[in-house]
Amino acid sequence: MIPDISKIRKDFPILDQNVNGKPLIYFDNAATSQRPIQVIERMNEFSLRTNANIHRATHYLANKTTEAFEASREIVRQYINAAEAAEVIFTQGTTESINLVAFSFGEAFVSSGDEVIVTEMEHHANIVPWQMMCERRGAILKVLPFNDNGELQIELLDSLITNKTRILAVAHVSNTLGTINPIREIILQAHLKNVPVLIDGAQGAPHFKIDVQDLGCDFYAFSGHKLYGPTGIGALYGKRKWLDQMPPFMGGGEMIDRVTFEKTTYNQPPYKFEAGTPNYVGAIGFAAAIKYIQSHDVQAIVAYEHDLLTVATEKLKQIDGLKIYGEASMKAGVICFNIEGVHPFDLGTLLDQLGIAVRTGRLCADPVMDHYGVENMVRTSFAFYNTFDEINAFYKALIRLKAMF
Ligand code: PMP
Fold first, then answer.
1. For 205-233, how does the pLDDT look when each residue is reduced to its tens digit (9 = 90+)?
2. Which of 189, 292, 362, 372 has its CA 20 to 30 A from that of 230?
3. Model-level pTM?
4. Ligand 1 center to 64 CA (angstroms)
5. Are residues 275 and 326 in the same domain?
6. Ligand 1 centroid to residue 62 C-alpha, Å
């Protein structure tokens, strides 16, 4: 069934405004997506009527908040089909989720001379934490490259994985190239050599139905704010067998079992990894966002977003001198490009004058910029509230702006 986009857009009041005198066209969804009124109202209602710190008191409001927080964990668990709620850790977002694994897994399982594999197309959030861990542990970071089309050179993976490889980290969907990576195949290949796999799902979870058990991944990291939820909240899925063996990431309240000055023992997962007061209002908003997505036909949304990508790609390719970076056969709704002779920042600024929000810059992916030998790119990224009319308007704006240069 084709989703009723005009009805969906009514749930996102922010979209209904003029920017610089023009109707807003929001094409910066890979940076952050907008929140439906259902999420905003749920969080407001919660703050107005229920707020109290969780897990710490016996009074009515504390119990209600704890129940809502744990119910949110259960909603996330169901959404990704984790085997148990203990495998879902609330974090600030993808960045914290990856840092948590890089630190705690590194402490437990990585030593001098070991190897960690990432790919050339990763966001900095899936490079730097591993680099920091490798420095700490004396390990070596290895990189699986991609070809100019924007596809990982999977054929090199087998020789890259050695008996020293301790973990492999890869994006589900690239935030620059839009490539949907063959993560199932990568996981299978890594597991054949007993190497666990972390999936950076920042750009995957917002667009696909995720089933971590079916995928078989060891860790899956994602953010609430890219999934129509609030900022400052995200999740890390981790297989229980790893979480049980990994030491805590941060110390503080809630992550302990018993504290004495001589020795402290730790709580069970997920609490072992949730030191301090968590962003429980965010978690409740995150769960509301998931429920919002689930109130739609998810398959229809995926298909619609793919149509947006196809139409936009066809249109952009008609523009002389426009180069698209990343033309993998499996792509999600992200298009990065440059127009010959036009600085991406100028283009971004002029598009903004026309009410069109795109992202420009290095997109937290320096190695991708280096691969293509460019300093910056322009990125458009779609969500299911975007329309074909917006793509048309964008195309016409590009033609008009290009003529100015
Ligand atoms: N990985 C990818 C692929 C991303 O696109 C992003 C966000 N741009 C991140 C990680 C980091 O996400 P966050 O800033 O929400 O922690």
1. 999 999 999 999 999 999 999 999 999 99
2. 362
3. 0.98
4. 31
5. no
6. 32
